[in-house]
Amino acid sequence: MSNHVAFVALGSNLPTAPRVLEWTRRKMRAIFSTSCRFSHAEWTEPIDYPYPYKFLNQIVMISTERSQPVLEVLLSHLEDEMQLRRVTVDEGRIVMDIDLLTFDGDILRPTDWERDYVKRGVEELIKKNGRKF
Question: Is 51 in a helix, a strand, or coil?
Fold first, then answer.
């Protein structure tokens, strides 16, 4: 089976976002083993979001034998699990947003793909790891 390459965006706007991101990274490493790499995390202002809370964002590059639909389901389940781990959430707070940006070079979220923090994260990952690893 051939490996596919996907880029994924992670984001949380909780006050505890650094811990939430760390927990998400651990879960992703458990799911994907050594086949995922993470960019540096970056605080950003909310974009097209009505609440003022800053987001802590991170880009993930995944090399996987799984198909796009399977990967989407895995990421959706992880996002759901993260939401359930927090009992009370203030209006406008996002525990963890996980978006599949690309799969094998196909851009699935063109608006997100054009964001500066996404470009910086992808560039960092490709520079460190090459297109595939």
Answer: coil
Residues 24-45, mean pLDDT to the nearest whole number? 93
- In the chain, what are the domain boundaries? 4-129
> Three-class SS of residue 128?
helix
Do the strands 106-107 and 42-44 form a parallel or antiparallel pair, or are they unpaired?
unpaired
Is residue 46 within 8 Å of residue 13, measured between CB atoms? yes
Residue type, 112: D
Q: What CATH number labels 4-129?
A: 3.30.70.560
Q: Exposed (0-12), middle (13-18) or buried (19+): which is 23, by Cβ within 10 Å?
A: middle
In the chain, DSSP assigns E strands to 4-12, 36-38, 42-44, 55-64, 97-103, 106-107
Q: Are 25 and 38 in contact (CB under 8 A)?
A: yes
Model pTM? 0.91
Residue 122 dihedral angles phi and psi, to the nearest 5° = -65, -45
pLDDT at 85 over 80: no
pLDDT tens digits along 113-128: 999 999 999 999 999 9
